Records
---
Amino acid sequence: MVDDGVGPLEGVLVADFSRVLAGPYATMLLADLGADVVKVEGPQGDDTRSWTPPVRGEVSTYYLGVNRGKRSIALDLRDPDDAAAARELARRADVLIENFRPGGLAKYGLDHASVRAANPRVVYASISGFGSGPGAHVPGYDLMVQAMSGLMSLTGEPDGPPYRAGISVFDVMAGNHAVIGILAALRHREATGEGQHVEVNLLSSALTGLVNHSSAYVAGGVVPYRMGNAHPSVFPYEPLPTADDDLIVAAANDGQFRKLCEVLGIPETADDPRFARNADRTARREELRPILVAALAAKGAVEWFELLVEAGVPSGPIQTIDGGFAMAERFGLDPVVEVGEGERAVPTTRHPIRFSATPARYPLPPPELDEHGAELRAWLAGPDRPLGEEKP
């Protein structure tokens, strides 16, 4: 099929009242898919504008990483005129997304009930830390949720302290859940003409995101604890030392284990009844690990990686982020795209979803604070027409 230059969300206007990570990440993904996203910021701008280092020029790379494809307007909601402009934007929007503390927008007439009264078709998405019920008063930060959900109890060495994940994993997960909810609500609106309130909270995203560990507790009554890099239900599925660096080996079924043993030159190990099934290998991991480690000592991690992958055994060297991007380039994934032109051009990570007919587009670089304020104020003060008509 031929790309017609129109994204799948072309014509969808998103009023983005979110800040920091979960909401901006969600709206960036929507912008990549063709939505017109208006980023509403306070007079001081999104918090992440000041989260440095690192920087590109004088701009926070954190901010740059989640704000491409948007227009920025700075509005002080305590100012009556700015609040009125914000309400007009909400009235025109197909989607409004916000991550204020639950109830925090009511005094400005921007809560769901108020916006819906003026715009019954709106899909109003709220992201919070702990929901809009008894947990509404608790501030929602990813690190808190990593601790409170149990993730940190699962991360680290068995006899060491708990650790946070290296990224704000539940902010990103909640952002993705918000996108899923928004798209489903847009489909419902297409069928019925009705908007709805979509609520996402970090703790619920965390608990569903803990998948097998959550199921161990909910379905099995087992409280899992950290095992370092080991997997509670599969072996080998962890880093193992080689002649130089550690190598991830993930032989998760009997066939893969047999291939692993063949490549390592120890085919008899796959026939050993002690290691016949995954349950056996997991139960006897301390017997099996030394056998694998002794064989892996013959070559380095990269050399083993090439041999194992060629044989169909999941494995991978442990790299820094630059190595991750290099690997994506090697596999033809083109992980970096450039948005903007000239001095405003910014390299950014490619949208993760590929479409055969409507690929993601990157028309606008991350905006400067209030960069589009004048034109957006004029548009909001004028006749009700699609913002997309002025799309570059």
---
Amino acid sequence: MTAEPTARPTPSRAGHHAGVEAERVDAGYLDKRRLRTGTAGWLLLAGLGVSAVISGDYAGWNFGLAEGGFGGLLIATVLMAVMYTAMVFGLAELGSALPTAGGGYTFARRALGPWGGYATGVAVLIEYAIAPAAIATFIGAYVESLGLFGITDGWWVYLAVYALFIGIHLMGVGEALKAMFAVTVVAVAGLVVFLVGAVPQFDAGNLLDITPTDAAGASSFLPYGLLGIWAAFPFAIWFFLAVESVPLAAEEARDPARSMPRGIVAAMGVLVLLAVLMLVFTPGAAGSAAIAGSGNPPVDALAGAGVSDGLTRVVNYAGLFGLVASFFSIIYAYSRQTFALSRAGYLPRALSVTNARKAPVLALLVPGAIGFALSLTGQGAMLLNMAVFGATVSYVLMMVSHIVLRRREPSLPRPYRTPGGTATTGVALVLAAAAVVATFLVDTTAALWTLAAYVVFLAWFALYSRHHLVASAPEEEFELLAEAEDDVR
């Protein structure tokens, strides 16, 4: 076994990098931290985007009915669809221009410097580390409700799914993405089966069956008033949460400059269509009041509408596949974000070492262990809001990064350009900022706990890791190249 290469400090860079020290490492450092390249084409990337989100079509979004009613959730979903679509166009540009495993962290690192890059990467990591814990609790509930294996205690399920799917990821990215794609196909097919049963039962009157309150602006369409629209934002986000994970696969993609934009835009198109269909036909079959508190909305909608038990059970099993698909793909996302931050020295460097199959072992295991511990709380709804807080903070920073890079580096090679340019990402920025505030409206305690964790991560950077960055990491190399170009000019 060879010894870890010795890092040789170099002087800190000037300007907005003052106070940050990067170290040179020899080639052996990066040799131990390589991913398998050229594995995923645009179709697998699109599958990654859909699979990361598909569980949100089966559960979670419906709690927004209890915050805004059908009208409030509908308006919130339209606004969040606009936000995500605009953001996806911006990320498609950034991912094609800066294709590394860091995703949003890479983009912010180039635009906002080490502090901005780290702040973005940590927000993304918080989202992806917590979201699987929430999904694990839903998987446990599904397994228990189906009576599978006679299991009645959820923590066994949480442990089993973490161990099984982390194990598959350790086998290599090619095997993981193909398995993920197959599970996603089954989950999407389950939604189609649901719609076959729900569409004939649709009654427009069911959408507006929540009794209006005395809130300002309340009506049958907006039973919780105008503020209910804002409060429904975090639940509307669940229709799209984690589609932004696609750029994290950039280093493992084939021809990322072309496949990345095609994959993420295609995924967003599928997700918008599914969001509209589920939002309209689920409460339309059984009533918004009945679906608002459901833990399994498609199944409860079919049962409430009197659809056959056989069809309902098929959808129930498909829902389990949907949850597994998102759980599986977000594990991939948190491992790549952890890998990139670790490789560049922002997190402990041991987390980015890869095995013989080029899978980052500790980047899979450590956040997985933390997620498993969080899943034991059984607080799926609270964990969801915590994940949404991390996500929306990262969206704000990523959209700022797009705008800054467009203004500051107009000549940066961009194989794909965002339609509408900074006006498009400016819309996403405003809506993302509103969504951050909305997380406090829904669950102030969850948002504050997440903010506290975020502050701890920032303190780690301030006190330690900003003095131990790795200049040879791809994200840092991008910055050195940019500085060299500035010097030439």
---
Amino acid sequence: MRFRNLILTVAVAAALAGCTNETLDSVNLSSVKNKTEYQLSGKMVSKMRELGMQKTSPILLRIFKEEGTLEVWKANTANRFQLLKSYKICAWSGKLGPKVKEGDRQAPEGFYPLYPRQLNPNSSYYLAINTGYPNTYDKANGRTGTHLMIHGACSSSGCYSMTDEQIIEIFALARDAFKGGQESVQLQAFPFRMTAENMARHRDNPNIDFWKMLKVGYDQFEVTKRPPAVNVCERKYVFNQQSEGQFNATAQCPPMSTPPALQMAMASYDKDFRRDYEKALKKYQGMVWYEPTEAERKAVVADQRKGRELAYAPTGSSLDAGKLLKVSELEKKIAEQKGAEEAKQAALIQKEALEKAAREGKGLPVPQANPLERSVEQAAVQPEPASKSLWDLFSRNEPNASPVAPTAASPAPQAPPQPAANGQQEVPPAQDKPQVAAAPAANAQAQAAEQPAVDQAPIDQPKKRPFWKIWGN
């Protein structure tokens, strides 16, 4: 009995190991002589055979940003698509939401047809598949951007970046499908799996209306397991619509209808969705999902960069870096981020101004104090000159001499004026004038009005006059 249990344990372990190896299975690039002609592994071909797929049967790609997943679906003999393999996206830039303009670092969301000409064997990022952004919908809505790829190197600036081992396998799957006669591979790029719970969790996102439009195509694939027919009219996506008129991206939609069989299937699907959505709303009542920044996602997987090139920049999953918050907590966090961003922009503007001044050979501006304010401040703090007594006249005016308190002695007699060289009378210095007793209170305001303003510049102290100079001529 114990031996039998041991055999079962080994068998289960082997099965689990097989699943793990399939997930971690990677191509040995050192043994690949021609990356564009790389042949899928025997393990992959065997799995296709088990699922009733031919090597050259059509494929479909699905991307889920939040989960960080790229899926390859392949048609079986019944022309229904099944999941063949799921890959972990190494890096995607920006946040959830569609790409709107060149340089916004957003990765595209929507439905994109991939043609053979979009396979790039000479990419700077090992291999690449151009997403075809902007598509008809993007152009109708004025969205801009170029060279948005699915490529290798694990470094993204608006692209979906895989590892080189992953992209060589995805590239080979698309190449073989085109060889089998598939005209275009449909790429479905979603912000997340559009389940009732996820739609409720993201209900406050400003992109929710756009996502609801994408969800129609998502739901129809979930029900039919076949790529939906995609058209654009009135600047919006429409899926699996029958019409005798022409679809024009910016014009009014022609009369159209949904096939009856699809309509019945979708009615049942929508009923279940609404039930699950109401449950999810109660679950998330009073809570809001905080969508992490690209930097916050990178921080979660920072250890993956160790020992690799600087260009290798995995970004991690939004599910790992994001969180549910109360509304008040989210508002506070957004305000803090806004303040930090404004400070960053102000510093950047100042830096650019300084660099411009340096390039033009101009001196850097030095802040100057307001002279008016400085004058007022000096006048306010300048002390009144102390009255001197008779005994002060005999001091040596040493710096460390202790001050002598003024006395109430009578004012010293004024020295007679010295005749000037030209015969005119010389006015004695202000310092030699005797101190005048305080005026009566009634004349205080008049004296204050007549008193001149205190000079801002420091006044040179006159030299001490000898005793005999004070009393004599």
---
Amino acid sequence: MGEVVILNQEQVEVIPLEQIFERIAAVLGIGITLELVTSEAECEASQLSFFCSNRLDDALYRMTPALITPTRWSPGGLRRGRATTPSEAPPDVFNFVRHGILVKTDRCTGKECVYVYVGGAAREWLDGAERFMVAQGGAYFTTSVNKGTGAKLANVDYPLMMLPVKGNVKNFLQPYDPACRLSGQERFLDSVMNMNPVYRTVEGIQQALNHLSWAGAGLIPTYVPYILQHVFNETLGFTQQVYVKESPNRNRYFLNNQVRQDIITISGKAPLFLPGIIGFPDVNLEGVPTAVIYTNLGALGTPCGPDSADVYTIKSMFTNPRLVGIPQNPLIYGSPVLVGGLCTGGCEGVNVMGFPLPPSSSYSTMPAYSLSTLFPAPRSWSMTDLESYARQLGIYDSFMEALNAVMKAIRVEIILASKGIERELAEKLVNSLSWMGSLFQMEENEIAKAIINEIRSPPHEDHPDEVGQELHDAYLCYRFGHC
């Protein structure tokens, strides 16, 4: 990590990490000990690279971010069955995916537990998303909700999302612990949840930089280059679309299956890392946000390489003129910012400091660098602190409702399997339904019985009643693969 790959339209070069930090510090107009900041980054990289030699090590879960994407979407505010117009298109390639982290909770049924995604979201899909997939470590996790529920599970000012999901992964390890609350910063980190509106603007954050008390180094794991290479390139080449319409007369879109598989595959790779500087404000000031300044697409490094495949990926992107100059934003929003030594002191351990979120900007004098709000992480990954975090975000009631819905979906899936439905099919059928609709107001055994009756019924069109319409999605999944 002592050297970083720098990309531009003409060439690919490698420069020392200190020069990256020196450039950022110059733009900020702050004096920092470059040797100390570089040392911090080197320490963090050494902690992460410990796991790179064995890609099957479960500890990779701790260093890889999660990726979230809506897998079923329909225009917000539209009634079922109404045709869409060109202005009601699904999220584009820059807005269909975000980064975050995945946490395993103690809310379990048998061996299956509820996980919680915490991280970025896109305003473009919050109102219309009906189903989500979270991918991490080459595995995927799902949740299926009512249209508009996504907006109730996010603080839309930033936006930051807390989404309960279901999945089943052996030997899952929690992400690195959140950064310790340093003495004197407790009040600040709590107050940032209710940040003064003046600092929610880009200008406000830039003004806050005038009040930095100190700066430190951070590394931001990212899959942006892989997403651009495997999805963006192919999409603009018209070889595939991110979303495909279910049918001409239905206003729903499904994530292209190849794109879905690409995201799952990408999540199993060792991420690339962006070096950045975290600006900590004077703790005596109220409401001044922490900021993170990081390189755009033009600067990448990795504690795990980069290997030849990574270098090829990076270079091949910049042979496409349509990708030159495209910044990290907004795809990188929500990725955890990893810092070292805040809890243990010295070169020991890595912690999650928070998540880069809007508002953000690129410096006009130095467009290769972006400035974002650094939204703090929960106090811990315990269920108690996750609930407290949801309260601070103003989404507690919706979060608990969604969490209970995921628990119910797990139980329905188990019942279907007990009744002779193959487990993979049971999972697809349950995932095709809304877990927060009228059907799921019924008792679990009744839901399972209704699903079985629906998929075994003769060919038929949609139902007139709301429960029947929801059940019909299981029929479409079973008969036509529209899952």
